[in-house]
Amino acid sequence: MFKRPLRFLPTGLAAGSLLAAMALSVPALASTSSARMRQTALTALGYNSTDWRYIQVPPAADEPLFYERSFDDSGWRTGQEGFGTVGAGCSWNNPAHVKTPWAVNTDILVRHWVHIPRDAQQVRIQGTIDNDAQVYFNGHLLQTAKSGNCIGGAINVVVPANYLECCNLLAIRGHDYGLATYLNVEVTYLKPTPAA
User: What are the alphabetically sorted keywords of the record (predicted)?
Assistant: First the structure.
């Protein structure tokens, strides 16, 4: 016997079909919105930046807590990166790159405040040191860079997100063991931006 086709789904079946369709559409919407976002690399503190507070000390000198946010550096000099010597050494040891003298066989302590937007991602500190450096961010030791002879990019570390604040302190202790000195760093980050 021929049965007449149902024109309407039973209520329970219709509701289940609707929920399944909605669940399948959510990932599609999420992937569509994330596809419309991209990340732009921006510089928070560039190479050769100014207004660094610095002091040169003997290699064994202890400067307690110079990397802490509350440390008083008001008695320190103000200078511009790169810090170094002009003459023998690496390719950066020339007047075009060395803006502030750093004496051979000393340590240099440097501090700079850095503004990082709240939505910044992948905050990275990169740079060059001759010879070694300890890199601090808001009082946390992030990296001990062993460069030897001025290897470009020897300083390269991503700041953990939980270390970030709106106004941040970057502090570095550079160590020199003779012949030439050099220190120059930058701070960059990725910022989510709508795709064009």
Answer: Signal
Please check whether residue 138 lies inside any domain of the structure: yes
Residue-range definition of the domain harbouring residue 95? 39-194
User: Residue 71: what residue type?
Assistant: F
- Beta partners for 112? 170
Residue 59 belongs to a domain with what CATH number? 2.60.120.260
What are the Cα distances from residue 134, in Å, to 73, 140, 154, 170?
18, 10, 11, 11
Q: What is the pTM of this model?
A: 0.79
**Domain count for the chain:** 1
How, if at all, do strands 155-158 and 100-101 pair?
A: unpaired
pLDDT tens digits, one per residue of 39-79: 899 999 999 999 999 999 999 799 889 999 999 999 999 99
Determine, yes or no, domain membership for 13. Answer: no
